[in-house]
Amino acid sequence: MRPQFIALITALTVSLALGCAHNPDRAPAMVSYEMAKEAEEAETIRERNPELYNAAEVEYTTAVKSERAKEDEAVAHHSEVAILLWRTAEARSHTIDAEARLATAGRRFITAEAALASAQAERDEEVLAIARLEKLIQLQEQMDSAAKAMATQKQNEKAKAATNAAMLAAMAALKDAEAVQASVFAPAPYSRAQEMLAVATVSLKNGDLAGAEKLSADAAAAAINAKQLAAPKFEADRAHRTYEARLKGLFEGAKTSGGDRRVSDRGVTVTLRSVFESGEIFVAPISKASLEKLAELASNYSEFAVIVEAHTDNRGGTTANLTLSQSRANAVLTFLVEKGVSPTRITSIGKGPAEPIADNRSRDGRAVNRRVEITFVQPPAR
Amino acid sequence: MNRRPVFGATFLAALFLSSSLSSTVAAKQPAAEAQESIQSHTVTLQQLGERDERRVATAEFGMARAWLGEAQSYVDSRRKREQLGWALARLDAVMPLIDALILRAEAEDAASAASARVDAKEAEVDRVEDEVDELRNRRDALEKEVAK
After folding, report:
1. What does DSSP assign to residue A172?
2. Which residue in the set A120, A136, A140 is minimally distant from B128, CB to CB?
3. Over chain B, what is the mean pLDDT?
4. Which whole-number Å values give the CA distances from A157 to A53, A161, A285, A378, B99, in the listed order?
5. Mutate to test the interface with B, among A33, A97, A124, A126 (most CBs of B within 10 A)
6. Do B122 and A113 touch (CB under 8 A)?
7. What is the pTM of this model?
8. Residue A137 and residue B16: Cβ atoms within 8 Å?
9. b/e for A39-62, b at 16 or more Cβ within 10 A?
10. What DSSP designation does A266 have?
11. Do the beta carbons of residue A345 and residue A267 sit within 8 Å?
12. Rg (CA), chain B
């Protein structure tokens, strides 16, 4: 558009506007057009729609001319057309604004979509990372749980093994105690040990390992105590029984000697008569067989000491009888030693007539009193 | 949307044509040509009416119909040639206006809808980003737990 034309139209518009401002009878469309051009967005509308604006201005100029010519109908027509054109330009300008908003929205939408895709990708990544971590933690928890279970199992096994060991020890202690007949010689601690072991067995069945272990240990201690108490008594009893058996065997063995046998507190005594001829101090041949049997018996029962006691009747002097009896006792000792009996085991004693066992006044009584007693003496410690 | 420039160019051409003829040629426009123009405007107005679903140009449609009736009443009158030309000229001017008003409404509707979609999309972005923040916090906590 040529600048001269625009200047002319502008000058006309201004002058007409100023002139009409004082005229209340002006056409409403004309006034509307003039007010529209003064609006804030008018410049934008003009710039965006120059052809429409120019056409409107042409109509407006014509209207102004018609107004001067007082052609009211023409004024109304041209100003009406002018305002129609202006409104068209205005609507198109608003359309451009809306399209700009649409374009902006489109760009924002693209940006938002990109941001959404990015955020979703990030979210997916986080979800995956979290899933991995949760799986890891789950595995770790499972491992911890398994390790804990294993540790518990191991501890239980250890406790069970300790309890079993304690129970076995208690059983062994009871067995040892019973070996010395603690049930007989120490019944109280032995029974206590048995009872505690029984209770320990019940505790073990009930799963009370610690209780079972402690009871087993107590049972073992009681059994050991019982053994300690019973052992000496058991040994003494056994020795006594052994001695009794040997003594019985000795008594039975002495039967073969042909002598009289008796058992006393001292042991087994065999009385032989006619070992010596009257006044003799040498063993009579008739008695040698008996003495040999007794020597053999002494060898078989070597734990017994042997006391040889020779007795006389009361005929003759006492001193002579004592000497005689001692000699005779020695003779028997010598005989036994010759037959293999250790001399250290044998004691010979001449009793003389001091210990008669029959009446010396009669011949038979004196014969009885003339005797040799061989006593197998029990060992000092029985 | 592609119709808008076509309509715009058509109506602009019609506008210039009517404007150039309105004061001189239109006054002497033969009845047949005027009738043809009225017929053309009637068809255009009907088409525009079909497009104006939101009724954004009800007043303008009223004016156009009034001017169509006015023009029709002047067709056979030799003394009203100038008025006929003016009526046709106003019709020439109001048709692009109606078209522009409809297009503006359509554009504004599209812009509003697009803005709403953008707002929704941006809200979704915010929501997902909030989720990401929460997930990141959760992941940090889990990483600390794993590191223990």
Report:
1. H
2. A120
3. 85
4. 104, 6, 82, 58, 96
5. A126
6. no
7. 0.55
8. no
9. eeebeebbebbeebbbbbbbbbbb
10. S
11. no
12. 28
Q: What is the DSSP string of B63-122?
A: HHHHHHHHHHHHTT-GGGHHHHHHHHHHHHHHHHHHHHHHHHHHHHHHHHHHHHHHHHHH
> How many residue pairs from chains A and B have C-beta atoms closer than 8 A?
124
User: Does A105 contact B145 at a Cβ distance shorter than 8 Å?
Assistant: no
pLDDT of the residue at B23: 42
Residue B44 has pLDDT above 60, yes or no: yes
Residue A23 pLDDT level (bands cut at 50, 70, 90): low
Q: CB-based contacts of A44: which residues, under 8 Å, 6+ apart?
A: A93
Count other Cβ atoms within 10 Å, centred on residue A283.
20
Whether the Cβ atoms of residue B66 and residue B79 lie closer than 8 Å to each other: no
Average pLDDT, chain A: 89
Cβ-defined contact of A55 to B118 (cutoff 8 Å): no
Distance CA A356, CA A220 (A): 61
Per-residue CA distances from A222 to A110, A160, A192, A316 (Å): 93, 22, 7, 70
Q: Which residues pair with A347 in a beta bridge?
A: A307
Q: In what order do the strands lie in the sheet with A346-352?
A: A260-263, A267-273, A371-377, A305-311, A346-352
The rounded distance, in Å, linking the Cα atoms of A85 and B96 is: 8
Nearest-CB residue to A91 (from B101, B110, B135): B101
Question: Based on the number of CB atoms within 10 Å of its own CB, is A210 exposed (0-12), middle (13-18) or buried (19 or more)?
Answer: exposed
Q: Model confidence over A63-83: pLDDT tens digits?
A: 999 999 999 999 999 999 999
Contact B90 A77 (CB under 8 A): yes
